[in-house]
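Reviewers of the previous submission asked for a worked example of the structure-prediction workflow described in the proposal, so we include one complete record here. The input consisted solely of the amino acid sequence. No template or homolog information was supplied to the procedure at any stage.
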Amino acid sequence: KQRSCPRRTLCRPMRAIGKQLAQNKRLPATNSIFMPIDRRWWALLGTVLLITFGTRFYKVTEPDHICWDETHFGKMGSWYINRTFFFDVHPPLGKMLIGLSGYLTGYNGTFPFEKPGDKYNETRYQGMRYFCTTLGALIMPMGFDTVYDLTRSHEAALLSAAYLIFDVGLLTLNQYILLDPILLFFMMASVWGMVKISKCTAAGGSYTVRWWCWLTLTGTMLACTISVKFVGLFVVLLVGLHTASELWLILGDLGKPIVETIKQVACRALTLIVWPIVLYTFFFYIHLQVLNRSGNGDGFYSSAFQSRLIGNSLYNASMPRHVAYGALVTIKNHKTGGGYLHSHAHLYPKESGARQQQITTYTHKDDNNLWLIKPYNKQAVPGGKLKLLRNGDLLRLEHVVTKRNLHSHSELAPMTKKHLQVTGYGELGVGDSNDVWRVLVVGGRTNESIHTVTSRLQFVHYLQNCALTSSGKQLPKWGFEQQEVSCNLNVRDKFAQWNVEDNQHKLLPSVNFSVYAPGFFARFLESHAVMLQGNAGLKPKEGEVTSQPWQWPINYRGQFFSGSSYRIYLLGNPIIWWSNLVFLLLFVVVFLYNAVVQQRRAGQAAISQPTPVADESPATADICSCCPDSPPVKSSGDAHQAPLEPAVSLQAAAWLFVGWLLHYLPFWAMGRVLYFHHYFPALIFNSMLTGIMFNYIIRSLPKWMQHALLGALLAAVAYSFVLFSPLAYGMSGPLANEPNSTMHKLKWMTTWEF
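From that input alone, the workflow returned the following structure tokens.
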């Protein structure tokens, strides 16, 4: 009798497979450990490895100049070797691994990585490229084994691996000093481990050494994925959803006590939640311990954070505790990632308010951040006497380098039109009444003295009654892409808070500021706040080529990795990408059709058999997971591919479809700048889905026809790789839009720029 299952849409019971296994006299139903060797599987895996490493390591050291984002991540690897602190919007693991690979292969961290196109000359950059390429190459065998475990189909696994191997875009992304091959490796390893856990659980192997190893490996890979880029959260969600689905099915296994479910939940929580969190925190601990020297990223962090960096002006600093008139100070915006109050000898353009000197915030330290505190009605304190600055005082701030005063008036700000413009005004420190500001201590008492670093301050304009603030908006090129400073009529603006960082005064005694240095967890939390804010603030620069999510699946436009006489162009193999879309749409149609058919059959069964018939509860091994259990085996040697129910293949494809959705749809909601390479995690799921759907569609055909169709598709994919491989391996000569170019006939879309 068929058993009705309310979860059959994604997880259909695998009772038929369980019975096949139980009836097989040569292999117990729950024993998949001592299966005879599947020689065909090993032969195919060897072929996949051979082709993968052959295509990935061919010309891996060419071109011998900086390509695309190698200028960023190679430079960051150098900073790890030199222990120099920097700011980046991504977590640290990928850059630490790049630095470690360079260090272990003889790179000394001195190459500047200034701009794309710079020659490496005698620099030992090869080790970092080999490392990234190796991780990128391991994606293909893991994809092969993942699809095989999901379907028990050699054909589906081989086709999925071929789609990954012969995509020239994935090849290009794998061969350079980038975070992408590292991210994709850890992401694929997480999915591979997820499927192995499911397979081991379905085979009755819970709590065995192998089961614990796969759980620990998966948790480790999840931690590593999100430690490379925050988009690793998407694969964390996928594994979390899949784990919740399995636990729900285990809860419904009435043959096991409720204690079994509790044990499963506890084990998975320990290895897939607690362990990744510990590991993720540990990576940041290493990051903060290694980068202990002051660098160009200091200014993105709070004054207290900077006091832990060797070489920073605040490290073991001795400076006055109190702030007084006549002091030379730097003033830092107190928000996360806030910059220093800054000015330079350039004017606002005509269309941006009064043509007076620009005032900005700047995240790097230089002399243009220095300000002199003066009384509001005098140039200096009479007689050189010491007078402390107190809560509620009126003052003027003079820019030390240009001798102009901090000023505001009724003109609108250049970017935030609800705010007023802030400028530098006057000559040799002499201005007008619009230079007067009242300093207030946030939450302070009347007449309270102002302290260096720890006092949170507001500067309220005396005449306009607006608060000096950093709007967070980036100025155009005329403002050197620094942050806008304006005056907000809403004085409760949370970004209108500042603190004095550097404080120089010859009449005040100095104290040591090491007591204010934060501990690890305070710096850990601040690092995340700065990274998240930096990610959200990534906007396209003027003239920069970006892309939109709708363009990615259709391979609308690529991007140059190298634009010199030796050109590299990141573009997907069009045969693979466009057929991926076809199979993706076919899956949606077939899945919905099957859901409707199953629902109608369930209704018909309820009508024809109104009286419920008792049925034994399913065992855990019979309950569905994302992959089938071990197949029956022939008597001699080679494992035989068991015929699976169509629903099993659809169920496996459904989880890959969920993976594709999780790695693609969130980009539609992102406000940050986006690039073509952001689609490649989703592409991996789509390529594995294609192998499963192709095998599903041809399953009812004769074997000879199945093999003929598979061979034809593999040949087409391999031939298209040969045609488009110059995009990855390097092009020279005329561009493709010229008739005498060797690539002219391959420019199938006008938006392709190679």
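Residues 22 and 28 are 6 Å apart (CA to CA). We consider this example representative of the routine output the project will generate in years two and three.
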